[in-house]
Amino acid sequence: MALSPHGNHSAQHPQLPTIGPDDPFVKVVKALSVYFVDELALPSTFEQLRTTSAGNKIRILVEHLVLNCTNLALVNALLTLKWHFSTLESDDRGLNETRANACEIVAWRFLTQVSERDAVDFCLYELPPVQATEESSDANGIEGEADERTDLLQQFRAQTSLAPISPARPGSKRVELLRSLSGMGIDPSDEAPVDTDEEGDPTTSFTGLNGLEIAAVADCKKFLSQRVVQKIITGIWNGDITFWQSMSTHSKKKPQIYNKRKSDPFIRLRVPRYIKAFEVLFFATFLALYYAVLVERNPYHITPLEICLYIWLAAFAYDEVSEFIDAGSIFYAVDIWNGCDVIIILIGAAFLVTRYVGLVQDSNSITDTAFDILSLEALFMVPRICSLLSLHPYFGTLIPCLKEMAKDFVKFMVIVVVLYIGFLTTFSLLGRGTFTLSEMSWILIKVFFGSSYLGFDIMDDINAKLGPPLMLIFITMTNILLITSLISILSDSFSKVISHAREEYLFVYSVYVLEASTGDRLTHFYPPLNLIPLIFIRPLRLFFSSEQLRNTRIILLKVTHSPIVAAIWLFEATNDHLMGTARPFPSMGPGTGRGTESILPPAKQQRPFLSDRANSKTHSGQFTEFGGPDSPGPQNYHVTSKKENGKGDVVVVDNTDLEAKVADLSLKIAELTALIMAQQGTMGEE
Asked: Terminal CA-to-CA distance of the chain, rounded, Å?
């Protein structure tokens, strides 16, 4: 069927972005943003982009990127654009939301069509720092080298000398991101693209972030819940993927597959599951000391158990401060358990102050108040030690639901408080000769929580004429209207969240794994041992260089954490003996993708390594290598297969001509399919 000459030319032949292997991040972002703005001109939902012809343009883009793009900043750029389109001002047609969803779909579809090793490289590729001036390079030594002062998410904290100073005030990093992203894409409402040369590189706020961290910052929950991404995150959680290989002064951070024979055993201290295990052990000890101090309750002097409780509290507070600095405010606020940690620290500080005042003034009442304050810790410490359950899928699914229901409950209570204050004022004035303000307050609270008979008993005492009708209205509104509305709202909120609860759970789980593992600090001291470097090493910053400080911290870590490392080694050795030593990522070893052949059926085998195609040294026979838009056809390559004859000998059969013809036919079929899909998308949009 001939195509209409008046058809949409851009829909038939979309201008696919050209991305070189060494193009800078800002150029990749610009190229992709132009494509999304030009090709996605009609609003569509996420499901429509994923399942209908509305997503033809992004399917073509994915195939183009898989075949032609080897730039490791590609996933970072797609997820950054997702953040960009999501934060633009909402338009009536919803195009920005459509483009944001398209960026997320392209990112995870691209990862599903490359090898596992390439997926790890793309997801964990950290954006390099911008080039510093000569003065800052001389002052800081090697450019981009991480030290003990380097933070996890640099764009959420004070900028280092390697990044330009942002004009935004300190503490407003989200505003800084929004301002930076204003120049990343082309706003469809603008007639001309933003010239970022005048304002500087708009992508500097993302310096030091890898793809998974950008996904967490951009709320790409669907992306993080994909199987290929979760396999990488689970590998980080179990320690199969590590970011350090040796515990030395010149060690550099680099994502890699854990090799037990080559890696330093002290690197296992950075594995998230071991961090979580010892965190639970620390909280169990903390809770035991807490109960011991409350049972002992010595009002006259501080006991040894109380001193231990103070040490544990100080170690816990310092660990939380370090976590906040390393993870950044946005990552830190995502984990709801961090709110419990802050409250535990505040209650502990209040107990310490009141306890000290009570001992100095020799006041039994103040001392009793101090222990009363300490008793409030149980409200948060007991759930905190049970936070391990949140890593289980069942309990981890319920927590986001409860969180959203609590938000709706707080919002609804604003209406309740407004109505309550109005009726309280009226009833207090009408019954001012019979009831005090406090008495009337408690009466109305009891009526609100179901004691309606109490309101009917006292309505004549409030006022003989106005009391009964007003009390009847109050009881009807509270016990029927408000309570029923609240139940309906919470039920609707629960239904909405539970449908996406798995994504919420995996998002929180992913954030915790990234928060615990991807920090740039080589040495990580477990509490309460983290007080040792605070007391003995931190003052040495005035006298030692950065390299000397790192070497000192490494030595101190090996001395203090040797028993913990021995316990981890014993656990892993026992686990390998019982469960075997099967590699968790069989396709991620050296070679050309042979590892996937044993575990995946032929129809589901993954694409070959992009690194091989980038170097142009080897090519896989799975699909054709394109030379460019002007290339006359597929490149010639030599493929051989091995067959066994009846005698058991191996006979090598040359299939060069057959493979070339099949590749040429596949190319023509792919072009025809893309043309038909583009035409269908055009008809659907009209």
From this structure: 19
Please check whether residue 411 lies inside any domain of the structure: no
Yes or no: say if 491 and 483 are a contact pair by the CB < 8 Å rule: no
341 in any annotated domain: yes
104 and 220 within one domain: yes
Find out whether 406 and 338 touch, Cβ atoms under 8 Å. no
Single residue among 441, 471, 503 that ends a domain in this structure: 503
Do residues 550 and 566 touch, judged by C-beta distance below 8 A?
A: no
Select from 278, 341, 359 the least CA-distant residue to 524.
278
The whole-model pTM stands at 0.68
Going from the C-alpha of 540 to that of each of 78, 476, 535, the distances in angstroms are 43, 69, 10
Identify whether residues 120 and 199 lie together within a single domain.
Answer: yes
* Least confident residue range of 179-193, 436-450, 475-489: 179-193
Q: The tokens of 315 are what?
A: 């170690």
pLDDT in tens, 15-73: 888 888 888 888 898 899 889 888 888 888 888 888 888 888 889 999 999 998 888 88
Q: Is residue 212 part of a domain?
A: yes
Q: DSSP states of 87-151 as a string? A: HSPP-SS-HHHHHHHHHHHHHHHHHHTS-HHHHHHHHTPPPPPPPPPHHHHHHH-STT---TT--
Evaluate whether residue 470 is within a structural domain.
Answer: yes
Percent of the chain with pLDDT over 90: 19
Instruction: Measure the CA–CA gap between 442 and 421, rounded to whole angstroms.
Output: 12
Comparing CA positions, the residue from 42, 31, 13 lying closest to residue 71 is 31
Q: Are 359 and 427 part of one and the same domain? A: no
Q: Is the peptide bond before 528 cis (omega within 30 degrees of 0)?
A: yes
Q: Are 23 and 108 part of one and the same domain?
A: yes
Domain carrying residue 449: 423-503
pLDDT at 171: 35
- pLDDT tens digit sequence for 460-485: 888 888 888 998 998 888 888 888 89
C-alpha span between 393 and 544 (Å, rounded): 47
**End-of-domain residue from the set 224, 258, 282:** 224
Binned at pLDDT 50, 70 and 90, residue 331 comes out as low
Residue with token string 């720092």: 129
Same domain, 372 and 438: no
CA distance 290 to 400: 29
CB atoms within 10 A of CB 292: 14
> What 3-state class would DSSP assign to 241?
strand
Do 123 and 208 lie in one domain? The reply is yes
How far is residue 352 CA from its own chain's centroid? 35
Radius of gyration of the chain (CA): 31
Same domain? 17 vs 74 = yes
Q: Are residues 107 and 174 in the same domain?
A: yes
Amino acid in the structure at residue 355: R
- The per-residue b/e assignment along 648-657, b for 16 or more CB within 10 angstroms, e otherwise, is eeeeeeeeee
Q: Are 109 and 227 in contact (CB under 8 A)?
A: no
Residue by residue, DSSP assigns 26-80 as HHHHHHHHHHHHHH--S---HHHHHHSGGGHHHHHHHHHHHHH---TTHHHHHHH
Number of domains within the chain? 4
Angle between helices 452-462 and 467-476 (to 10 degrees): 160
